Amino acid sequence: MASKNTVCLWYDGTAVDAAQFYAETFPDSAVGAIHRAPGDYPDGKQGDVLMVEFTVAGIPCIGLNGGPHFKHSEAFSFQVATDDQAETDRLWNAVVGNGGQESDCGWCKDRWGLSWQITPRALLAAISDPDRAAAQRAFDAMMAMQKIDIAAIEAARRAGAPG
């Protein structure tokens, strides 16, 4: 492991499955070394997969098969910036379509309970617009969405512009 700071994510025996899904779904992602337990532990046996090293969108991670004791929550999420609606749709649909759940404002949850923000760069630009009224309109539009619709965000942003 080369990184000094690595995100450790807790799984209940499914760390390899999650890592493989992330590697197949998100750009700049890969599965690295798989480490097996050198001995029995409370939720596994010697030789079981204990940890898997992986990268998600360039972020080094460890998946720890620690058992059922801890669950993921929305207090931690990956925010993935997308360049267009096609990329937004592809990533959103991959997470939700693989046993995940839709949530609000561009958030969704994968089948392992990990939260994702699939966030178009256009949304960030719209809600940061120096025209505060345009930013507010874009923000209000986002608040009514689950998956972000870039065209609707841009339309809301322009709604008050002279025509």
Could you walk me through the main structural features you see in this protein, from its secondary elements to its overall organization?
- The protein has 163 residues and is of the alpha/beta class.
- It folds into two domains: 1-71, 2,3-Dihydroxybiphenyl 1,2-Dioxygenase, domain 1, CATH 3.10.180.10; 72-163, 2,3-Dihydroxybiphenyl 1,2-Dioxygenase, domain 1 (Roll).
- Helices cover 32% and strands 27% of the residues.
- The protein has helices at residues 15-25, 85-97, 121-127, 132-143, 150-158; strands at 7-11, 30-36, 49-56, 59-65, 77-82, 101-102, 107-109, 115-120.
- A four-stranded mixed beta sheet has the order 1-4-3-2. It has a four-stranded mixed beta sheet with strand order 5-8-7-6.
- 31% of the residues are buried.
